[in-house]
Design goal:
8-stranded antiparallel barrel, DUF2147, signal, DUF2147 domain-containing protein
Length: about 200
């Protein structure tokens, strides 16, 4: 008499493998670059790849709900610990400070808060084309997450120029694009051609 135990075990194994195949895997990472409206609606942040090999992620404030102070002047980065940056406008400053990719396909690093001049640990990723997840932590203990929404329109007063170009945001010096070093040997100057038709050949 043939035992049915091996057959039952094989059937169970096939069933487990089928269920595992039906389970959704980890969500594929979506493009984290673009323009995003923060969860509180106070700012729009433009994210783009940066760094020498464009593998990091930088972000800039390109629109603010209240870009002016009570005197009608541009709000300044007055709480920045770097005295050289305290006179710069908050509109256009760099907020995401060159986040590096991690093993999970997310970006980690520091986020700068112009409201108090402090920087915090942050992780940024996107699982849906319309949303950017932002998780910030202070002292690696107090953490909070936000969902920023992708925007494709242009709000009044929004910076539209390229980074470090006219009408665009400004990168911190360490993340500003560096001109490519050519190192090419200049070509010798070409001798001017004499006027008139070329001399006939013999």
């Amino acid at each position: 008499m043939t035992s049915v135990t091996p057959r039952l075990a094989a059937a169970a194994l096939v069933g487990v493998m089928a269920l595992a195949a039906m389970r959704p895997g980890p969500a594929a990472a979506a493009d984290p670059t673009g323009t995003w409206l923060t969860e509180d609606g106070r700012a729009r942040v433009r994210t783009e790849h940066c760094g020498p090999r464009h593998t990091h992620l930088c972000g800039y404030i390109v629109w603010a709900k209240k870009p002016l102070d009570d005197q009608g002047r541009p709000r300044l980065d007055q709480f920045n610990p770097d005295p050289g940056k305290q006179a710069r406008p908050l509109l256009g400053h760099q907020m995401l400070l060159g986040l590096a990719p991690n093993e999970e396909g997310r970006f980690e690093g520091k986020i700068y808060n112009g409201d108090n001049g402090k920087s915090y640990d942050v992780t940024v990723w996107s699982e849906r084309p319309t949303e950017l997840s932002v998780k910030g932590c202070m002292l690696a203990v107090f953490c909070g997450s936000q969902a920023w929404k992708r925007v494709t329109d242009v709000a009044p007063g929004q910076l539209q120029g390229a980074t470090d170009a006219a009408g665009g945001p400004r990168a911190d010096p360490e993340w500003a694009a560096k001109p490519a070093a050519t190192g090419a040997v200049p070509a010798p100057a070409r001798r001017p051609r004499p006027d008139g038709p070329p001399a006939p050949t013999r």
